[in-house]
Design goal:
Number of strands: 8
Strand order of the largest sheet: 1-2-3-4-5-6-7-8
Helix content: 40-55%
Distance between the termini: 17 Å
Number of helices: 18
Strand content: 5-15%
Order of helices and strands: HHEHHHHEHHEHEHEHEHEHHEHHHH
Amino acid sequence: MIAAHGAASIITTERSTITNMNNIMDFITALPKAELHVHIEGTLEPELMFALAERNGIRLPYASVKEIRDAYHFSNLQDFLDIYYAGAGVLLQTQDFYDLTWAYLQQAFIQNVRHAEIFFDPQTHTARGIPFATVIDGISQALVDAKNKLGISTRLIMCFLRHLDETDALKTLDMAMPYRDRICGVGLDSSECGNPPGKFREVFRRARIAGFSAVAHAGEEGPAAYVREALDELQVMRIDHGNNALDDTSLVTELVKRRIPLTVCPLSNIKLGVVNDMSAHPLQHMLDLDLLATVNSDDPAYFGGYINENYFAVAKALSLDKATLVQLTHNSFTASLLDAETKAARIKEVNAVAEIE
């Protein structure tokens, strides 16, 4: 594992860029990290999609893996969601959900993810007649195996699809109640524009009463007002994306004061046109404002990279130094749902790699 040159060079000297380092990706890979924003359905690589379609006798509108990859071209959130939901149609059996989740966890292990908080969208599957138990049994068995075989800790977060109505979300919450020991939180995803967080006020209220943590996608394509609404109406403890929060100075002040994390997804932002060029990505600005920003992959099979590729993309485009990369990995554990003792242990692991006392 490649380490930095010491605490003094990281903490006390002027910011030293690493854009000219040949081992930038090695350093990123060496850093233990948490991933807090990844949709398990969004990790469905074309090869696995093709294999599952063949196993389940599903006829895809693509003749090859290459054709599937070529279809992964879109310019906005809705175009992406259309192919995302179509791809999920190959997931039918418990083994399919296990294979999907295990494939992601193996990749996460390679990229030195020590903790992953994974979103899943049960409504995408129950609407197709797939039992809730089929979905969660496959996913959760892979999470158990990740702990025992890979040493990766995990948390599972159930998202409600915001393009559907709250009644459907409430039914989904009822389905989840027998599995509360496997699901730690609820979230909100899918088409943001025209679907404000307040639309789901009641289901989040009931979920919090039931003991679930609450997070929500907000401020990706939606306005800063959606971020504030998620905080006020849904009482979330973390904002997924949150880019547009920067448009509201008072909101930024509140996010900083309350230490509300933002789970930022750089390659996703580029792919969906949220940010036009990586050199203009607001991540460094977020950190300069003392926002608790983290780096994540979102839907890596569709957006061109897992967590390390996301770190690399912003490190290269924004000339991030080692101290900033270390800070981002610290942030990832700080913003996680892990207990305080485990967070401290993981941050200590980061410091050991970066040779920080």
